[in-house]
């Protein structure tokens, strides 16, 4: 998970500086390890800047300078994936110069995955002299390797064009929007909203969009069965985003309602682990009739713990992430909504232990994601969670095992069919739940 954004103004004197800055800031939740932009101005070369700061702090003092340059096209990137480097990055050939940014994970690739994809694209572009043909070549080369959404600025002797492409399985979200004469592409609709634009539609799996001063052209170059990552609705995406026509918040809320129907637990109050646990908590509270209270308060300066890889550092980050309002939970039977249990560090050290310290009588976890039984397709050769006996075990039994390990009185998990129903799409990647990977078999180690 990282985030990409592209903005292009078809107006004669269009300036996309504000849209690029505010749109990319809105995607910050998709990556906190770094950020970067590349811009184009009439008659000038491409300009690129990146750094390991958050978007706001990296560019806040330079927004007026960006505005003065009056760029008509630009792309941006926020970094999470360790397989990628700071982006966008530039590359030059005899005919073309490109700035390239990718949200993706590719299997069987050494080095930075974005650099690998950029090299293939530029070489194909130099050889074929056609963006659509070069994009199809790239898709063919990356077939079976994983997921990607790409934005690029392509400069030749005459003009700069904005290119966007989504992998043929549509594993990651990607959408298209506009505001007046500005056309935008973004990992999530929140990026469009941040830029002041409206969502027009999702970019189709295998679709390539090319935007120039003459307008937009698009073609679906290659399409395979849709395998959109279910975890986007559960955790990755912002609750304000709409993916494939489904509002993320309402999907999470629906899961809470379904869990309230499935589990009849005795609770006095429902609280949420902010921010991705709020939807499931509210759905559960409203359906069950139990009051919802804001008892778990997020430290605004804390890291997004999912993006902290070191176990000890993650434990420290979890303890610093949340604080509990004691008066809300003291002596109460508490149900706490959360998005998922991956490693268990945050829910155990960040909330359950703290609720116990605050004298909560009982603690029940209300989780919007079914039990994770396999590694993500990004690491299909990693630890096989099925070896712990959870795969195909009833979710109630898994919940009891996990509750004991985490120190909770119960864990309420949905089933995979419940998650499918809440999302409302059949074409989903659920590799972490069922072990069915959307990649070539040669990359899957049993």
Automatic annotation (TrEMBL):
EC number per UniProt: 2.4.2.14
Key words of the record: Glutamine amidotransferase, Glycosyltransferase, Iron, Iron-sulfur, Magnesium, Metal-binding, Purine biosynthesis, Transferase
Binding site for [4Fe-4S] cluster: 229, 376, 429, 432
Protein name per the record: Amidophosphoribosyltransferase
Listed GO MF terms: amidophosphoribosyltransferase activity; iron-sulfur cluster binding; metal ion binding
Cofactor (UniProt): Mg(2+); [4Fe-4S] cluster
PROSITE patterns named in the record: GATASE_TYPE_2
PANTHER family: AMIDOPHOSPHORIBOSYLTRANSFERASE
Metabolic or biological pathway, per its Swiss-Prot or TrEMBL entry: Purine metabolism; IMP biosynthesis via de novo pathway; N(1)-(5-phospho-D-ribosyl)glycinamide from 5-phospho-alpha-D-ribose 1-diphosphate: step 1/2
Taxonomic superkingdom: Bacteria
Family per similarity comment: In the C-terminal section; belongs to the purine/pyrimidine phosphoribosyltransferase family.
One GO BP: 'de novo' IMP biosynthetic process
Chain sites annotated for binding Mg(2+): 276, 338-339
Matches recorded under InterPro entries: GATase_2_dom, Ntn_hydrolases_N, PRTase-like, PRTase_dom, PurF
Domain Glutamine amidotransferase type-2: 2-214
